[in-house]
Amino acid sequence: MGAGTAITTPAANIGMGGTTEGGATGTLEVRGGSMSFAGTDTSLNFGSGSLSIADGASFTVGALANRLDQLRVGYNNSGVDLADAVINLTGDQFAAYVGDELSVGRVANVGWQSRANGSLVLGAASTVDVGTLASPATLNIGWNESTGSSGYSSYANTSSAIGVLDAAHGTLTAQLSALNVGLTAGRGTANGTLIMGAGTAITTAAVSVGVGNTTEEVRPATWTSWEVHYTQRRCRWAKARWTSTTAP
User: Which of 3, 35, 203, 207 shows a CA-CA span of 20 to 30 A to 112?
Assistant: First the structure.
């Protein structure tokens, strides 16, 4: 995209579509211009896709008054192959206003052998705003929805979802109905890591950490930055561990 680019679309898919032969890859390179989302069920999806923002350029998806419904990084809805997306926004000017769902490393409930590996690293000039008080969203990091079976006893469900959201140096504000970090539907595996920084503020009704056949890690950048507000009383932990050089 250049300075003269203006795109309006209900959905943008970057590197989406897995196949047994290797699937799709894609790159969204922003040197200027704008991308707006209009209609219902709007989404920006990165499968095996990447985002590159040029020096001096900025990229914003959604707006406070007109949010993008879904932002997904490392999203596999094909039933096969690997969706591998690493988006590192260090040094970039980026903003996202998300209404319904932010997922990093998500496998949809299609087939039994999908894999997803998503990583989203926020820089100092990155702002991600998810959900509102009136309409809370879901934040999913390492979410495996697969429940499928191969039909053969010798082949287990091999699906896996890995997600990393690193907000140590950026701004992450979220009003949520659910925060899921390492979550399966009972088949396959999931691994989620959420790194929170001084600019992180999350309010959520429910937290699921390492639930299902999962391993996970929730790690604040510093222990003083660890603050999640629960608006209800449901918080589930399984196979969870804290890692820090100092005790919380």
Answer: 207
